[in-house]
């Protein structure tokens, strides 16, 4: 790799005379108002970028919540005290995540709508429309990833709970298979031990309590997932709709089109030239009746 | 097999780009526009995605050669090849009315002085960054690169070509950027042939340019030779591999099915048209691509079962556990489903072609190529092996391939015999398909006393093989010999000195280690890079992976100007005799 900025700047400082003529060339065009192409969608893009930044921040918060939930879940598994308070916090976190997720989703929809409006206003291949669309796609993907992280955290907790139940059951001297545990969760009943009314020994009893707690935890976890699955599916569908074609760089470049300067600007120019036509000016003098 | 994305070429290229372009770009946290030319579009597309760019504050990508909308308050990053056309397009953006606030300029290779001066004098004040980052090859796969130049074949081998030297120079530049990107300063060797000099010429160019590069490079600062070897060889050294019907999945698919731009197009049973990109994003493709079609077919019933199982009945009770399981798999689930459907279709199409006619062809081809039949008995009369093929109504291309294999196996035949064969296949007006092979240095018409030493092949009788896949590309022998440091110095002369005791065993002298090499990093300990002039085949690409997997301490990277399929090669060979005046359109089937 070679950095040649130094050579570039040396040349410029060495030959200022060469630089000046190029500037002078621009001056004769001052006869017309300098036609600096104003970027049409400047304000709109600023708004979209700001919104995108805020949404990124929200998603970061969401991810932090998910991490916190993960820690809470782990704590539930390891500590035996104050289970109820830990459980409370887990559920509260779950609700927070859901609320935040729904808020972000609503903003995504709004952004999507804005992007479509920009497309209609400026054309699908205009710079501003493409910028807005790429922001949409990117944020959707990021949000989907955040939701996946949440799902992974809950799934992990689920597996850990099931393992715990299995182990506790073994302590009690009873072999429980994974499928039986699944069934327990489905039916919501701790039916396994209904036939074992007489439990001998303190260890067996504490094991049973432990299992009951885990079982309750699993049910609550399922509840959290049920709450949020709707949102999750919508997200997944959205991501799929957008597809991976939009992520492909070659496809993106291929979609661009030659930029046609706005017709109105050209028409204005044409009218001005027509008016300044010296022949026409002469004619006007000679024939004042003509416009 | 280790995850492809761990250490492949694409990852390395993307990292390079991140360390240069993206790092500069992130110094100011504003959104920027990225402007690419056709080559850099392909380059970036092969190693990253839009979302990767957006994560680095690049909002849109533009085409350098299209008229672009001015966006005055944004900075633009230009990533382009240092050609006059690109520079003119760049100047057009800033000379009269600047389209962007400022320009960050990155070239894929060294910029010639005249173009540099043009940019300085006409637009210098808009340029905030001007770097040459030396990446002018395409990372096709984890261990395969191309120079994106199918025209190089004609330029080098056509007797009417005027620009052979400049093509070789360009290829040399590109190979040097490959070495630079891999951070290697290899010892260069080439295959010595009695009748062809291209490998020697190219090797000398590369060696020279490598030395120059490491003089100029900012970061390298008088780099010494690294534990790497670069071998340069010409297509003519193994004319059999690109002509044979291969039965490994990737090679077979590209040979028998029309796959353009790595896109496989097919129709589902309900008539809807689908497209699938066969790249390393498709994990199933990476898993299957080098396997024999028999093994791939064995996977089909399993895939069918999984696909139909996924089409759940909607009224089936969705239990929470199933729901949770679905959510867990959802992100990758649909992708995997698509991949399975694609490969189901592709494998079935391959097998269809196979059972229709390829199967019968293969036996004759293998006998001719290997020189002995499946039981090990030497083929005494090649013509007897060839005749049944000629008598059967195969396609013309298939017959040409069989005839060529016959000619290669007997090291050239008599004019009389050749005429008879040509008549038989009915290609009297198209005999260039066969005759033009002489331009690659492969003997076609020889007298009966002509004796050409055939390369001694490695004994692979101990390896388990399918009867119809006994042929091993010659390049595999070369790779294995090179890794074991057994390459004959007379057949493969060194150019400048190679690092002492180069061997692929990964033993690196303590003095030459720049970084602590953990056990896993031994893979990057030594590299073998092979460049084939005239195109590389899928079977040869497969060999690179097989050898790397077997040896583990040495990574084998192969590349060429482009990738061949049998049909594209035959067409290219035929076209060698056309002068540029004739308006003959070559149906380009290569996928480089």
TrEMBL record, chain A:
GO terms for cellular component: Golgi apparatus; presynaptic active zone membrane; SNARE complex; synaptic vesicle. Residues 208-270 form the T-SNARE coiled-coil homology domain. It is a peripheral membrane protein. PROSITE patterns: SYNTAXIN (PS00914), T_SNARE (PS50192). It is found in: Golgi apparatus, trans-Golgi network membrane. Residues 24-35 have a biased composition (Low complexity). Keywords: Coiled coil, Golgi apparatus, Membrane, Protein transport, Transport. SMART domains: SynN (SM00503), t_SNARE (SM00397). InterPro entries: SNARE, Syntaxin, Syntaxin/epimorphin_CS, Syntaxin_N, T_SNARE_dom. The keyword Transcription does not apply. Interacts with the SNARE proteins SNAP-23 and VAMP. SNARE that acts to regulate protein transport between late endosomes and the trans-Golgi network. This is Syntaxin-11. It comes from Oryzias sinensis (Chinese medaka).
TrEMBL record, chain B:
Keywords: Protein transport, Transport. InterPro entries: Sec-1-like_dom1, Sec-1-like_dom3a, Sec1-like, Sec1-like_dom2, Sec1-like_sf. The keyword Lyase does not apply. Residues 495-521 are annotated as: Disordered. The keyword Transport applies. SUPFAM superfamilies: Sec1/munc18-like (SM) proteins. One of its GO terms (biological process) is protein transport. Belongs to the STXBP/unc-18/SEC1 family. This is Syntaxin binding protein 3. It comes from Oryzias sinensis. The lineage of its organism: Eukaryota, Metazoa, Chordata, Craniata, Vertebrata.
